[in-house]
């Protein structure tokens, strides 16, 4: 049972998806951004966080849920 609980701690219990770090490379209108995750650019929502270009955010289900590190970007994407 402990092994199963430890495995589940690494993923979302609702959808089994992982949260991944992503670099914000451009801010868009409507609380959206282009973020780079593992070399791939994806559009994500930044509505829940105060993210700027150059920040690293934690992304789950295309939603930034936390700013991990602040970058040196100007935030004007």
List strands and helices in order, with pairings:
Layout lengths: L1 H7 L11 E8 L4 E6 L2 E6 L10 E5 L2 E7 L8
Antiparallel strand pairs: 1-2, 1-4, 2-3, 4-5
Structural class: mainly beta
Count of discrete alpha- or pi-helical segments spanning 4 or more residues: 1
Gyration radius, to the nearest Å? Answer: 14 Å
Number of strands: 5
Give the terminus-to-terminus CA distance: 47 Å
Overall outline: globular
Largest sheet: 5 strands, antiparallel
Task: Give the strand order, joined by hyphens, for the main sheet.
Answer: 3-2-1-4-5
Query: Mean of residue pLDDT?
Result: 83
Following the backbone from N to C, one meets helices and strands in this order, namely HEEEEE
Instruction: Name the poorly predicted regions.
Output: 4-8
**How helical, in percent, are the residues?**
under 10%
Measured by DSSP, the beta-strand proportion falls in 35-45%
């Amino acid at each position: 049972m402990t092994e199963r609980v430890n495995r589940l701690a690494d993923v979302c219990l609702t959808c089994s998806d992982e949260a991944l770090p992503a670099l914000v490379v451009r801010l868009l209108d409507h609380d959206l951004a282009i973020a780079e995750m593992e070399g791939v650019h994806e559009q994500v929502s930044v509505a829940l966080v105060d993210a700027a270009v150059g920040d690293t955010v934690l992304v789950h289900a295309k939603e930034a849920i936390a700013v991990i590190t602040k970058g040196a970007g100007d935030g004007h994407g």
